[in-house]
């Protein structure tokens, strides 16, 4: 496999202004170096405030970095700029799935218009062609073409998550970044969504970068694991290697916590 995305020297500094009786708070992320191959799934794990969600926002261009470069298919993008023609091209190739899909859907707008927005803003396709693409994508994520006319309140949680997934693949991206995409779903819907993502990944050759606290899902779908602590990558490796032979103290702590919650026979 070849690298579809390379992240080099990604650095972000954030400082909260001093408040009454409080010292200013400084958070630094990076420098981060990361390679993602076509069709690969990378899981980013760590404790709260490790910088996982911040890294996701930097990758998709929702926040501008202070330093660093992102390469997509060997084309270089400067991660320091949030809005430019080249950054817009980058956001076609890297799309994000949000944790709470319902909050990302306007309740006053039908599904068809929600899915039409990325096509209308980023392509010059006529309305008829855009509608055909939307209906095709709805079918691809396991929804009906009739869902084009549905509103948010008419959809179940699982269907809302499928709409979010449809929106993320509308522009045929190379990389999907997801921040806890399964946390708000009940176990049965979560399992269906995981299998759907694996199916789309195989069909489209997508690379998938996802943040999760659920190490059961991580072990099931991730090819590689990245462990973060205090804004830095402290360990990385193949999934089974990390689970069987963790090296960093934080990794050992996370794996031990996971193993204490599952029957021992499932670990063999």
Automatic annotation (TrEMBL):
Domain ABC transporter, first and last residues per copy: 5-255
Any idea which UniProt keywords this protein has?
ATP-binding, Nucleotide-binding, Transport
Q: Which domain of life is it from?
A: Bacteria
Recorded GO molecular functions are: ATP binding
Q: Which Pfam families match?
A: ABC_tran
Question: Family, per the entry?
Answer: Belongs to the ABC transporter superfamily.
Task: Write the protein's name.
Answer: ATP-binding cassette domain-containing protein
UniProt organism field: Alteromonas salexigens
